[in-house]
Specification:
This protein is of the alpha+beta class and 56 residues long. It is built from one helix and three strands, in the order E-E-E-H.
């Protein structure tokens, strides 16, 4: 699995998988890591988390 690393300049370099579909996302020197490839994947992940919290 690929990993993004934080450089000396405080920026992330490398790849991280999307938390929903596991597609690798190039971080391109971002200050904050990108966790989702699309807004809809972020919403689906949040929705599934809420459902799991209510069900337990």
């Amino acid at each position: 699995m690929a990993r993004a690393r934080r450089g000396d300049d405080g920026r992330y370099h490398g790849d991280l998988p999307c938390r929903w579909c596991e597609v690798l996302l190039d971080q391109e020197g971002r200050r904050r890591p990108r966790y989702y490839c699309r807004v809809t994947h972020r919403l689906k992940f949040y929705g599934s988390w809420i459902v799991a919290a209510i069900m337990s």
